[in-house]
Design brief:
The chain contains 13 helices and 19 strands. By secondary structure, the chain is of the alpha/beta class. It has a 7-stranded parallel sheet with strand order 1-2-3-4-5-6-7. Strands 10-13-18-15-16 form a 5-stranded antiparallel sheet. A 5-stranded antiparallel sheet has the order 11-12-19-14-17, with no helix packed on it.
């Protein structure tokens, strides 16, 4: 998230998976007979199956780890890290417009979120290349001292905004100039050789093979890593592993911006690819985007759900806490040349540009300081904006009414309403959500319940659990018995399901089809049995 190509396209992995998921649903529902039993008939492709596997996180499970990899695993275990730029001085401007007072105040707030580490990006050209500018090195030294004053270790990301891969002598000189003062320094959590390397770029791959041992020698006992990202991060990690097969890093760093519900399966697959080396999720997040009022509030609720889902996935896969990108939204007017100024690329922060906290900040604080990761997903339908429920996405509802009623509910106000769904016979209007907690093994049992009632209802109104593999291919669905026709009081709908062998994500749906009246849903609960 810190290179010149930056956030352009960063949200596309999420959008592509959502499109795949919705397309699979559309194909399924278009041919469904409404019985919920047509999984085998309507799957459109053979899914890619990533087997469930236990995370290898301890020395007993990972006896072939090198001494450096074992030390890195221990250091990462308790890490609670945030990426950082000042909101008014991002990227290279952090050093060109260096204000220690502003940085000191930000570090105090990062500490207040419960973090114990902060990521600093060092730009080769800005710092002076190949001989680092002593003034810039002094700024870095004081910034590391400020971090330590607030109980924050530092991740150093080197060679940012630099790609002169043929200059091996210059890169060696620059790496030593930056790192030599910090050899074995306990204030440095780890060193990232370079942000988001493309192992398919031969020049970059050759340079990483050369430079990794140079940086490791300069760092001493400090762990050294290389990061990757992409729409298929597991394949990208596998390619990097092959590039570095003769001299692997102390751990691998994955930057994840894919669909949140798929994170658990992706992380397990990634762990298997890089074993016995440890894996760390060094960036993750989603933008709240430009806007204000109701749209902004709903986007911030979605960001909160996304980050909690990815953090749950990391923890359940046996990984350290994932590192959110980024501490604070970035002021568009302060973006330097070479980085995107698009507003939707600048709003990944836990804090807004004015310094106020988004909901995700409170959730991260709860994770970092206790009581832990919240697994709720607006199941009580108490939250919403401008007639749309937070966290839930309307699907196949263009010819129907799908809205949030903040006043009507079962025990408390708030419900999702599907009305006039008797249009296209191939559509099944619904509200969908990916829950934070996902099954962790094939054959695991899950249950979905919701309170629902009909108002002059016709057709078929149910709740359903739909399964997808990690490529977004449809695997099957289980559906509750329907609401009775007509008008009724609140009734509990319930469905049990079993995670299929290739499942990556369970998607929850509140559905109403062929209904000339209304179906109302509230108090949705999803339970994963041990």
């Amino acid at each position: 998230m810190v290179t010149r190509r930056f956030a352009r396209g960063r949200r596309w992995p999420v959008l592509l998976l959502v499109v795949a998921l919705l397309t699979a649903l559309a194909v399924h529902f278009a041919g469904s007979d409404g019985t919920g039993g047509g999984a085998a008939r309507h799957a459109t492709a053979v899914p890619a199956c990533t087997p469930w596997q236990a995370a290898a996180t301890g020395p007993d499970a990972d006896p072939q780890s090198s001494a450096r990899q074992f030390a890195a695993r221990s250091r990462l275990a308790g890490l609670k890290l945030l990426s950082y730029y000042p909101a008014q001085a991002p990227w290279s401007r952090m050093w060109q417009d260096w204000h220690p007072g502003r940085i000191d105040a930000d570090f105090a707030r990062i500490n207040g979120l419960g973090a114990n580490a902060v990521r600093l990006m060092v730009h080769a050209k800005t710092f002076g290349y190949p001989a680092p500018d002593p003034a810039r090195l002094a700024e870095l030294r004081q910034t590391i001292e400020l971090a330590a004053r607030h109980g924050l270790a530092v991740q150093l990301t080197l060679f940012d905004w630099w790609d002169d891969y043929s200059d091996l002598a210059g890169s060696d000189r620059w790496a030593h100039g930056v790192l030599d003062p910090y050899r074995d320094d306990p204030r440095i959590a780890f060193v990232e050789l370079k942000n988001e390397v493309d192992p398919g770029d031969r020049a970059a791959a050759d340079w990483v093979r050369h430079e990794l041992p140079v940086v490791r020698q300069a760092a001493g006992r400090i762990p050294v890593t290389v990061s990757v990202t992409g729409s298929d991060p597991v394949a990208r990690l596998a390619a990097l592993r092959d590039v570095l097969a003769d001299d692997p890093p102390d751990f691998y760093d994955l930057h994840y911006y894919g669909e949140a519900g798929y994170a658990r399966t992706v992380f397990e697959a990634a762990e298997a690819v890089v074993a016995p080396a440890p894996l760390y999720i060094g960036e993750t997040g989603t933008a709240t985007g430009p806007g204000d009022g109701a749209a902004q509030a709903q986007a911030e609720a979605a960001q909160d759900l996304y980050l909690r889902t990815v953090e749950w996935a990391a923890r359940s896969a046996g990984l350290p806490a994932a590192a959110p990108w980024i501490f604070q939204d970035i002021s568009p007017g302060d973006v330097p040349e070479g980085a995107s100024r698009a507003p939707e690329d600048l709003d990944f922060g836990l804090l807004r540009a004015d310094g106020s906290e988004k909901p995700a900040a409170a959730s991260l604080r709860a994770q970092f300081t206790g009581p832990g990761i919240g697994t709720d997903f607006n199941g009580d339908l108490s939250g919403g904006q401008d007639g749309s429920p937070d966290d839930w996405t309307a699907h196949d509802a263009s010819a129907a009414q799908a809205f949030w009623d903040p006043k009507d509910g079962h025990r408390t106000p708030g419900s999702a309403v599907l009305s006039g769904t008797s249009g296209d016979s191939g559509q099944s209007p619904s509200f969908m959500v990916e829950p934070v907690e996902q099954p962790t093994a094939a054959g695991q049992r899950v249950r979905l319940t919701a309170w629902a009632r009909g108002v002059h209802a016709t057709g078929r109104s149910t709740v359903a659990i739909t399964w997808f593999d990690r490529n977004g291919s449809y695997l099957g669905e289980d559906e509750s018995p329907p609401l009775p026709a007509g008008s009724s009081g609140w009734r509990l709908l319930s469905v049990d399901s079993t995670a299929p062998a290739c499942a990556a994500a369970a998607v929850l749906a509140l559905k109403s089809r062929g209904n000339t009246g209304q179906a109302r849903f509230t108090e949705v609960a999803f339970t994963v049995h041990p």
